[in-house]
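Researcher: Please predict.
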Amino acid sequence: GATTGNDLYLSALSIASEFIANQQKLRAIIVKSKVLNNLARRIVHSQRMLDGTIELPTKDEMDGYTDPLVIPCVGVQDYRSTIPFVIKEGDSVIEVGCHYGTTTALLHDAAVSTSGNHGFCAGVDIGEKIIQNAKRRYPKMIFEVVDAWNTLDLLKVKIQHDGIECYSLLGYDVVYADIGGLSGAHGLQESLALLDAIGKALEPRCIVIKSLCMKRLASQLIPLSAVKRRALQKQFIS
C-alpha cells in the first residue's frame, strides 16, 4: 500500500496512478486524504444503483450531507436509466449540456407535476443553434444558452423562469451533466473541477454526470467506512 498526506484530489489520484502504472501486482492502495475519502463516500457507481446493490439515501437522509452525491454514467441509456432512481416529483432540475433536449424532456416529466405547480426543469447548452433546435422540438420547455462553467448564469436560469423571491430557494435539487469533453476516458481533472464548482454554487443533493473516467473512478474508490463494514461482515459470517 501507499500513503500520502496530500489533501488534494488530483495530487492524491496522481500518486495512486503512478503506483498502479509501476506496480502491476498491487492489490490495494491506501491513500490518506480527507477530501478523497469524502468523494469515495459520495460517489455511486450507476450500475450498482440500477441493479439494487446500492440504495440512494432519501431527501431527509441527505440533510446530513454537506456535498452532493455523484453518479457517473457511460452512454445515453445508462444516463437516462438513472432518472427514476434520482428524480422525485417537485424537484428542481437542470441539465447542463442538454443537446437537443431529449433527456431534459424526460427529466421534466419526472420532476414537474402534471398541474405544473410543483417542480422545475431546464436545459442549457453552450451552442445557440443547439438550443434553437431544442426549443423547436420542445416549445413548452425551458432552454437557455449557458456555459456549464458559469455557475452564476446557471442560477439565473431558475431566477428568470421560476420567479424565485426567496434566497433559500436558489439552487437545484439535481443536476445532470452531459458535456462532450468530459464524457470520454480522459478529462478527470476537468470533471472533478466541474463537480466542485456545481456542488458549491448550485448546492444539489445529487449530480449525475456522463463520464467514463468518473465511472472508472467510482469502480476504484472505496471509503474506509466500507472497508470496515466488509471486515465486520466477514467476522460475523465466520
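Model: The two ends are 26 Å apart (CA to CA).
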